[in-house]
Design the sequence.
């Protein structure tokens, strides 16, 4: 387990100052990644604090460790004055609010450039900075962009992933855009919407429809459209994810499972049902855990379906300590650098600094 004992060298974003006016998840997750990489992130909060403080202390810590906290009432002259001071000494501002609030509080490049011509302003919204104020929570955007309709078994209801895929994906995209504009050395306004990010992530599905008129179809057990077998399989105990793409994987799998035929990808796709029946029968003879051991030893992509606690227990190097909390650490690992995982800030902890 990694512990917060300082860092042998400064993070790659040391010296970069970012202001966050965000709440709950998408915006705070974007700046969490930046803070883990060494940026100084100042979180502007209303007097009541980010609403995520009301969820639980560990929830707040999981996306706000290592930041500073300043309480500002942005609808007051004093709050706007302090905002201008922070902007003058910062490289970027990232905000996730309704577009009307972003404009009302003057959190755009046009409004803030008088304080700092090089400030990078990132607006993270549901449907765009000029796309209106329709509420845009993660589940809403999954429904609105086709993600929910594509997920689940045929004949069943649309299904939502078990985690906030839209918020996290949009946060990462916003962080990338922010850094790109800083590297360019110029200020400006960036507009990153949850809708656009999710449509972008449906890349090849969207291309198939736009160019060939192919509508996405749900397949049983999360099966892949182009590869066979590539899905979940029931075993003697537990489910196994198997993902066979090229023919070498199939030859190795067939040898281990005692199967023959279907030597090429084209054959397997053309005979999907027969292939899946043969694979299902073979996998039913052993447990998911044993199949994972047997198949990975041959270099075949396979994994038993685990719960989150089981996954965390198997990957202790992904768990860090920040103050009193054990959390999942930064996924970007850099030779010679260990992030300084500091606790999440108390509300207004950096008010005078």
Sequence:
């Amino acid at each position: 387990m990694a512990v917060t004992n300082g860092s042998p060298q400064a993070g790659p974003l040391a010296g970069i100052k970012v202001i966050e006016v965000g709440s709950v998840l998408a915006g705070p997750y974007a700046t969490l990644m930046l803070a883990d990489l060494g940026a100084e992130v100042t979180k502007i909060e209303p007097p009541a604090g980010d609403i995520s403080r009301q969820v639980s202390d560990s929830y707040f810590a999981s996306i706000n460790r290592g930041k500073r906290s300043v309480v500002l009432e942005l609808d007051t002259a004093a709050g706007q004055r302090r905002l201008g001071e922070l902007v003058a000494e910062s490289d970027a501002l990232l905000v996730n609010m309704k577009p009307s609030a972003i404009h009302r509080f003057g959190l755009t490049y046009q409004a803030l450039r008088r304080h700092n011509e090089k400030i990078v302003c990132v607006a993270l919204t549901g449907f765009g900075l000029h796309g209106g104020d329709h509420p845009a929570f993660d589940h809403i955007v999954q429904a609105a962009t086709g993600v929910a309709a594509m997920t689940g078994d045929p004949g069943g209801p649309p299904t939502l992933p078990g985690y906030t895929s839209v918020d996290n994906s949009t946060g990462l995209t916003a962080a990338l855009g922010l850094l790109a504009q800083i590297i360019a050395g110029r200020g400006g306004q960036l507009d990153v919407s949850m809708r656009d990010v999710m449509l972008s992530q449906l890349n090849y599905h969207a291309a198939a429809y736009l160019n060939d008129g192919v509508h996405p179809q749900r397949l049983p057990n999360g099966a892949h459209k182009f590869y066979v077998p590539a899905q979940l399989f029931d075993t003697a105990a537990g489910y196994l994810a198997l993902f066979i793409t090229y023919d070498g994987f199939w030859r190795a799998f067939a040898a281990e499972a005692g199967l023959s035929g279907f030597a090429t990808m084209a054959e397997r796709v053309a005979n999907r049902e027969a292939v899946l029946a043969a694979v299902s029968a073979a996998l039913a003879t052993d447990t998911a855990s044993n199949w994972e051991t047997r198949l990975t030893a041959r270099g075949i992509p396979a994994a038993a379906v685990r719960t989150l606690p089981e996954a965390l227990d198997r990957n202790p190097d992904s768990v860090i300590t920040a103050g009193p909390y054990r959390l999942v650490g930064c996924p970007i690992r850099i030779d010679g650098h260990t992030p300084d995982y500091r606790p999440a800030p108390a509300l207004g902890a950096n008010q005078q600094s």
Residues 17-202+323-328 form a domain with the Rossmann fold fold (CATH 3.40.50.10540). The radius of gyration is 24 Å. The longest strand covers residues 40-45.
